[in-house]
Amino acid sequence: MFGLKTKPGYSAGQVLDADGFQLRLKVNARAKRISLRLDNKTGEAVVTAPRLRDLGQAVEFALTRRDWILGHLEKRTVAGLFQPDMDIPYLGSQLRLSHSGDRAAARLVGGVLSAGGDGEAYHRRIERFLRQAAKDFAETHTELYAQKLGTAGVTVSLFDAKGRWGSCTPGRKAIRYSWRLIMSDETVFSYVCAHEVAHLKHPDHSDRFWAEVEHLFGDYRPARQWLKTHGTALFGYGI
Ligand SMILES: [Zn+2]
Fold this sequence. Notes:
37% of the residues lie in helices and 22% in strands.
């Protein structure tokens, strides 16, 4: 019935493959009864029995809770998705995500970003909104710094690569930004724009390059430090 037969001869520490989840068996003499929990680190279900000879009964018990276990494991795997009632960082402030009750694209009204759909569909609508906002911000600020540098016609696009914020191909006047910068703050995002624009003139990280960044942006050190300290957290969202 559950794809796993209860049989004698279970041992403490054993891990059973229980059709959709892993079940770890434990014996604890101080336990008063059979208990079941989920280990969030390993993703295993852990069933504990007071005595070795109760393990068979413990396995049976765990298998009757299969729906509960799978439901919780599913929640665990979608923890990185944008979901209604979540607060997300947005240009230095917070947006509250909500569900619009239809299948509409995301829209922002007074600090509340609402969209329709469920699960991944909802996530994608929120991400699409954030990407567009990132594109708008990046284009405006890239143009601003490019003008200051005395150049024009820079092409801006977005990408998503873990731990990378921007890249510049001076020969093609093409700059790409991580869309996740929209979840940092304005100063930080703006600094990355100045950084990449400065690469149009200096394709390296020489002293002359950093002097150019400072000329375009001002003191860039706090923004750079922010990315080092908080940047990784921005990669916690996504499929
Ligand atoms: Zn650089």
